[in-house]
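Dear colleagues,

I hope this message finds you well. In preparation for our joint manuscript, I am sending the UDP-galactopyranose mutase (Kribbibacterium absianum) sequence together with its predicted structure, so that both groups work from identical material. I would be grateful if you could confirm receipt.
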Amino acid sequence: MSIATGLPEDFKADDYDMLVVGAGYAGSVVARRFAESCGAKVCVLEMRDHIAGNAYDCYDEAGVLIHQYGPHIYHTFNSRVNSFLSRFTEFTDYEHRVLADVHGTLMPVPFNHASLKLAFGEERGEELYQKLVATFGENKKVPIMQLREKNDPDLQEVADYVYENIFLYYTMKQWGQTPDEIDPSITGRVPVFVGDDDRYFPQAPYQGMPAEGYTSMFERMLDHDLIDVFVEVDARQILSVEGNHVVVQGKPYGGEVVYTGPLDELFQCDAGALPYRSLDMRFETLAMDRFQPVGTVNYTTSEDFTRITEFKNMTGQELEGVTTIMREYPLAYDREAGMDAYYPIIEPENQELYQQYRDRVGMIANFHPAGRLAEYRYYDMDAVTASALDLSDEIIAAHA
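The corresponding structure tokens are as follows:
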């Protein structure tokens, strides 16, 4: 692998069998698999000055390993995803735990046995827990909509508490919506965990953090003799879609194109801009060993920010007398202000607009939209990796 800043004057796209736009999960996974499976030469074009996409991590001035674009917690049920990523890193045994600050009391989320007793007191909390066990069984995740469907006053009491104290204000901050605007389908997914397991992903068999960080994992993934990476390159300066062709450097390109950027921006948003939510992430370095008991504390009933992340609690980094925390302030996405687009707003009219853009590339056999931005959907890291593995299977099969 070579990584260069900017494109050289003698750059020729035709020297490559595949152009990949974006060096995050989707682009990097496909690049690696195509290069090693087909012996094909791959060019990766990345707009930022680094690889790894939003999973990028680095050391701050205090020497703390931070996640520049917010906490990334590896977990998956998918053995293929785990096997593939494990080629490029060892994973620690970290298991994510989250606490919610509810009127000053820290309680586990998803809401569980311990949370019930903290919220309702030992005796009443235990009564409600036993009702949950009798109704649903132990070690089950139960969406609060299911609690309401039982038409039981005790279960309704639990559902109402979780909705009002764990979900409502947090979601209003996250999405900038009032309660009547929040889609009921989102409410219905909020779970109560009937059990004592306080892990955020209690049933995922593969969990951890890359032992040397995410960026190191991506460096190894892209470290192949047939892969060239160019950072600080806006691919739209050389690549466009014209009719049923991908045009690169002024002429139709015959190789494969994997595009992971915003699909609307490829067309200068000429049908309208797809909306997102963004985040203002504020880092603070503190002269102490530890700020909070877990990696993430959600502020569900107070504060303008949604959560505080303390990175040392996740990475296991040993560094005495200093720690770095990050507060997340959700805000409306402003493309012109250079904000990062984090969360697509999945509403019918936005999906219809996205589909208009998708239809314009749907007949181009060598153009493959991939990943969170190009597919306008929310992806966990393992899900986007799985999708990229599937896409690479299709491309490899076509070149067999």
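For the figure legend, we might mention the following. The chain is about 30% helix and 25% strand. The longest helix spans residues 153-175.

With kind regards,
E.M.
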